[in-house]
Design brief:
453 residues; mainly beta; elongated
């Protein structure tokens, strides 16, 4: 019986992709050797299985029972092609051109790819791969037909439609209405995404906002950081100024409507009473806005940047950005590399992370490390879900225990399939039982994560 521990099977030059064949062999993309290597997991014996693959990156093995069973697909990073390695070890060009790269769907060498990387084979034999240069997820069928599934990251656009037919331009904040429809802001305005994946224009204006929330009546509120203001959209109408100056002139005054001053407001959340809470990033404060537009400062001291827990203006924030509110009307704010908790009375404590210490590590309280956490959402049973620039999504319990639930730290690129898989740059988050929706800014896409709660 094998003992637990780490065993060195054989030496390689520079490894990337790995695939197992189910009968005890591991196939490895050896970038340094420009080869596909094989290792017998029982004996540790290994060697070159196929050569002539320039800068191999991703690997996918066609499953048993499919027409291409036993074939290994390898992404060739130098030529931006995908090669097929037969069970005999012979190598052939399967998809993409060695003389051109780009974004063209088609069959075999008529398709153009641009730096294909991570790959995964579905049970049907279809291979899904992240085309990094095009910022897309693409599909490769056993007959070598390449189609684009979702995203057009190299060419952001403005197109409504279903699934992969839709195009976004730098999407960021994400919100949900009472019917489960998603709303996001991108460079084109406010967009609506149904639970079925159909995208349409939601409201006129609102493009480029960094905070977005929908109230129980279906009104949308969004921040315009550059204009130091919060806008409101009712129904399908045009945005109206709700609070703030509506100009590039910043301020910090409490007051009603345009009499109030903000300094680069960002995240927005709405509590059960319909009050808005805004992260006023430039003032290092959390502001409260009643449904009548009356603005007050809940926590933090305008102009005082710090890392102090406390109540009201005795508390200090370092770099607050995103905000969420739970069922008990408690607020949670991403601040530097930490998650801060703010009660309805304005008492601030640090729940997890270390504001000034950047890194990656699961743990409890200050033992956990984050890398510029951004989007925040309330998950099941009051847990928090955090978009972390480490290419992962973290879950934070009510006790401050942090675990990684989606992605692999430091591995960028969207790889559709079973978790943990990989994602690229998660920013906006919203949880609608039982699915977590994620905006991946680098991919200009909305991803759905299921099966984790």
């Amino acid at each position: 019986m094998r003992q637990a521990g780490i065993t060195v099977f054989t030496a390689f030059t520079a490894l990337s992709g790995l695939a197992l064949d189910g009968v005890g062999n591991a196939y490895v993309a050896d970038q340094g050797g420009n080869s596909l290597d094989v290792v017998n997991l029982a004996t540790g014996a290994g060697g070159v299985f196929a050569s002539g693959i320039d800068n191999p990156v991703g690997i996918a093995l066609a499953p048993i029972g499919t027409p291409s069973a036993g074939t290994i697909y390898v992404s060739n990073g130098y030529f931006s092609i995908i090669q097929a390695v037969a069970p005999s070890g012979s190598v052939s060009q399967f998809a993409g051109s060695t003389t051109a790269y780009g974004n063209v769907d088609g069959q075999g060498t008529s398709a153009l790819l641009w730096n294909p990387i991570f790959m995964i084979a579905e049970p049907s034999g279809t291979v899904l791969f992240a085309d990094a240069g095009d910022n897309e997820i693409r599909q490769l069928t056993p007959d070598a037909t390449v189609t684009t599934m979702v995203g057009l990251g190299a060419h952001p656009g403005n197109m409504n439609g279903a699934g992969a037919a839709a195009r976004f331009d730098n999407p960021e904040p994400l919100a949900v209405d009472a019917s489960g429809n998603l709303y996001l802001s991108d460079g084109n305005g406010l967009r609506k995404v149904t639970r079925g994946g159909v995208v349409s224009a939601a409201f006129s204006g609102g493009g480029g906002s960094t905070g977005l929330a929908i109230d129980a009546a279906g009104n949308a509120y969004f921040s315009q950081s550059g204009l130091n203001s919060i806008y409101k959209v009712s129904g399908s109408g045009a945005p109206v100024l709700f609070a703030g100056s509506g100009t590039v002139s910043s301020g910090n005054a409490d007051g009603t409507g345009s009499a109030a001053g903000f300094n680069h407001p960002n995240g927005i959340a709405i509590d059960s009473a319909g009050d808005l809470f805004v992260v006023d990033s430039g003032n290092y404060t959390i502001r409260k806005i009643t449904p009548a537009g009356v603005v007050t400062t809940l926590a933090g001291l305008a102009g005082a940047k710090g890392i102090i827990d406390g109540s009201g203006n005795a508390a200090q924030f370092w770099a607050p950005f995103s905000i969420a509110v739970d069922g008990n009307d408690t607020l949670y704010v991403t601040d530097g590399n930490a998650i801060r908790k703010v009660t309805a009375g304005g008492a601030v404590t640090t729940l997890a992370g270390s504001i000034q210490m950047q890194g990656y590590g699961d743990g409890t309280g200050s033992a956990a490390l984050f890398n510029s956490p951004g989007g925040i959402a309330i998950g099941p049973s009051g847990s928090l879900l955090i978009a972390d620039f480490n290419n992962v999504i973290r879950e934070v319990s009510s006790a401050g225990a942090v675990t990684t639930v989606v992605g692999i730290a430091g591995k960028a690129g969207v790889n559709l399939g079973p978790l943990p898989t990989t994602i690229n740059v998660p920013v906006g988050l919203v949880y609608v039982w039982p699915t977590l929706y994620v905006i991946d800014a680098q991919e200009n896409s909305v991803l759905a994560v299921s099966g984790i709660f």
